[in-house]
Amino acid sequence: MHPESVLVLLAQGLGIGLSPWAPGTVASLLFLLIWWPLARLPRPHYMLAVLLVAAAGVPLCGLAAEVLGVHDAGSLVWDELGGLLLALAVVPRRPVWGLAGFAVFRLFDVFKPGPVGWVDLHLNGGVGIVLDDLVAGSLALLVLAVLVCCRSGFSRDGRTG
Fold first, then answer.
1. Which residue, 27, 75, 143, 157, shows the most beta carbons closer than 10 Å to its own?
2. Residue 12 pLDDT > 80
3. Residue 112: count of CB within 10 angstroms of its CB
4. Helix 95-111 vs helix 23-38: crossing angle, to nearest 10
5. Using CA atoms, how far apart are residues 41 and 142, in angstroms rounded to an integer?
């Protein structure tokens, strides 16, 4: 197998992005399985993992888009991983919060309101592919932070319940 093919397959979430049914949504749902163990990490380590996923995604998705000849092809789902992990950075490690984060992230990623749409339209290459998902993840993070705060408040040690 050619090295470029391996990188494209990685950008496609090891084939998840080839799903005929909403590949970004399917991938994001399956990426909850990656979030689950990462959510045990201390927040600085978790955020480092998000940063590494996003940083690796820029050249990875850029190369895959070049090889496929399509900017931000639906099959490229590595960017969903970074956006989803960012969105889930503020939620407790509970299945219901993971699913809520998935839903809010997908809403922002699919409908691309405001800054998400701007990035999607104006930035090209790997940066544009990854950054629109990170902006969607950031907006989802804000919504989720408000929900977490309203639902459970903050304890004395600053952690959410």
1. 27
2. yes
3. 17
4. 140
5. 20
